[in-house]
Design brief:
The structure is a single chain. The chain is an alpha+beta fold. It contains eight helices and 14 strands. Strands 3, 6, 7, 8, 9, 10, 11 and 12 form an eight-stranded antiparallel β-sheet that branches. A hairpin with a 4-residue loop joins strand 7 and strand 8. Helix 4 crosses helix 5. The longest helix is centred in the middle third of the chain and has 22 residues, at about 175-195. It is globular and about 60 Å long. The chain starts with a strand and ends in a 17-residue tail after the last helix.
């Protein structure tokens, strides 16, 4: 992999014309991360949708928790929060690309989903990565690499960003798109958990470097932790790493110093009390479409018709 550096300039009309950016399709980052050399666990296909109306979920009503194995629960949770929902074809080239249920600027998806499980029925405790391309879980380590994070949570998600996926298109301003993307991923995951009867608590203040080191991340930055609570987790177990290798996403990577500086300035250097997430609250009442049907109809890339047509409820 080759690395280049881009020197940021003051953002003005003149600078935009001086720096005419053209997309290099040969170096477009792979939108799918996977880890080579680790066990891959199948998640049950076509999980049943949570029996909730979409507007009930938005109004803060929790769904009924159905007794299920860890595999069934995680499959439902991720299928309605981060999975592929459809595909599109470029008419001129025939190129087919995937769309997901969690929105993403430019459909570039810089956010990755890592999660630690503790005491789920029939599921081995460990650190996993969600392989979106095949709806599977990759077991990166057995045990608990984050025992001090929400110790009573049965599942702790670590949402990370791969800045290059956004910078490839948006250059120095990509960091704000990464933050936007994490927000979408957080709410997609929190609402899916709520529909399944679980409470999701976001933790925005944590020691970035310590979490990145604990999870052995390379080109990914931890951006948000999400603890799923609702039952007592099992005792934490020592970590046994399986030494998976992250796939190379691009033949060339351009590093933008301004993005590095912004992320460094945002890091948390020491522990403080976790910041509780604001619960999403809808202002529209009523029931309407089912939660599962609405989510699976969501797309991470859109076409706009224009004219006098409006979006229905």
């Amino acid at each position: 992999m080759m690395f280049k550096y881009h020197q940021a300039t003051k953002h003005t009309v003149e600078s935009i014309f001086r720096n005419q950016h053209f997309l290099n399709w040969d170096t477009m980052p792979d939108p799918f991360r996977h880890y080579d050399g680790v066990p891959v666990v199948d998640l049950p296909a076509d999980p049943p949708p949570p029996g909730m109306a979409m507007l009930d979920v938005l109004n803060g009503i929790a769904g009924e928790r159905v007794a299920a194995s860890g595999a069934d629960f995680l499959s439902t949770l991720l299928f309605y929060a981060a999975s592929i929902s459809a595909s599109k074809v470029v008419p001129s080239t025939g190129y087919r690309y995937a769309l997901r249920v969690n929105p993403s600027s430019g459909n570039l998806h810089p956010t990755e989903f890592h999660f630690v499980t503790r005491g789920l029925a029939g599921w081995e405790d460990g650190l996993y990565h969600y392989r979106v391309s095949s709806h599977m879980a990759e077991l990166r380590a057995k045990g608990d690499p984050l025992p001090e994070v929400a110790p009573q949570a049965a599942v702790v998600f670590v949402l990370t960003s791969i800045a290059w996926r956004e910078a490839w298109k948006y250059q120095s301003r990509a960091y704000r798109y990464c933050l936007h993307d994490v927000g979408h991923a957080w709410q997609a995951l929190a609402l899916s958990a709520q529909a399944c009867g679980w409470r999701a608590r976001a933790i925005g203040e944590f020691p970035d470097d310590a979490v990145a080191e604990a999870l052995r991340l390379t080109d990914e930055w931890p951006m948000l932790l999400l603890a799923l609570e609702g039952e007592t987790a099992g005792d934490s177990k020592p970590v046994a790493w399986l030494d998976g290798v992250p796939n190379c996403l691009s033949m060339e990577t351009v590093t933008y110093p301004s993005i590095e500086e912004m992320h460094e300035a945002s890091k948390k250097k020491a522990w403080r009390a976790a910041v509780a997430a604001d619960r999403a609250a809808g202002v529209v009442t009523g029931r309407g479409r089912p939660f599962g049907e609405t989510v699976r109809g969501r797309r991470s890339a859109l076409d706009f018709v224009g004219g006098d047509r409006s979006i229905g409820l």
